[in-house]
Amino acid sequence: MASLMAKLYEKSFCLLSGLVVPFLTLLAPSWLTVSGVGPCWAVLWLLPWAIEDGQISALLAGLCLGLLLDGISLGTATHVPALMALGWWWGGLGRRGKQIEGIFSLGLLSWIGTVLFGISLWLQMALMQIIESGQLLISWGVYTLFSQALITSILAPVIYFSLIAIWRRKSAFNA
User: Fold this and answer.
1) In the chain, where are the structural domains located?
2) Spatial separation of the C-alpha atoms in residues 125 and 121, rounded to whole Å
3) What is the pLDDT of residues 36-79, one digit of tens each?
């Protein structure tokens, strides 16, 4: 039990950095947009967490982050399944022994993650519209999806290396 508490204390700064995601999602800085669509902050935070910490930790981080984002969103779609699946997948990639640190690899992983995340939300909203009105009226989905994936994949390497450097420095300081 003591070792678990020590590990949680060591990771407390990393965990607290996840609380920034809902604020960035709400703030939506306009200078970081492509045609008015901002990056997927959840993907940008979850990718380095998953690669660094592994599958179980990333699965739980995806759950917590998804619940936080569900709490601030007004829609009927949930963020939880997509974030948990991405955390599990990326956590498995990070623990296979190879370091994923290439700019292209990080951009591609974040692009795929954002597309899967967006498709998950879009499908949930489409299903709810079909159930409620009997017709599908979501035409903005593809445009938003690819705009968000583009800006997220461009920012991913910068955010990844920044977060990893901060987390490692903080962990080394606490050790």
Assistant:
1) 37-174
2) 6
3) 888 999 999 999 989 888 889 899 999 999 999 999 887 778 99
